[in-house]
Amino acid sequence: MHTCPRCNTSLAPTNYDEIELEGCGRCHGLWLHADDLKALVDSPPQRTGPAGAQTGEQAPAVGGPPTTEPGYLACLECGAAMDHVNYAADSGVMIDKCPHCGGIWLDAGELEKAQAAVEASRSDLDRDIRRFSGPLHEVEVREDALEQQDNRATHAPLVSAIANRIQDEEEAAS
Asked: Less crowded by CB within 10 Å, the N or C end of the chain?
């Protein structure tokens, strides 16, 4: 069992979408591993929230403002200084991640913000696929014609990759 890096209280085991985490009942922070965070943000948006393991046990709540300002945190696993990083490089959600073992500390509300950022990114991708599918299909047809004419590989692999993704999406929707 680990101790909360923010308020030095013992973390309690909790389930969140059937993933075992450790949470602080005082500041509502969560300790998890990179694979767990990926599973939580990649799963469908039907969130059940944390749940206690036994009846009468109150699980840490998820959400609400952090109780302290972000700052130096020691990794709960290996003791190394954790980096304060922008989740997914550009989401605006700042999390604490150990550069050595990959452990992650999420202050209250950061999990929901990361989930919202991933969901928004998916919505933007779906919108862009619908928006650009026609023009990209036309580009793909022109490139195919040029490739057959010149009998050489295409010079626009990114356009082809996007066009293939759109085609896959259209086939999946059929």
From this structure: C
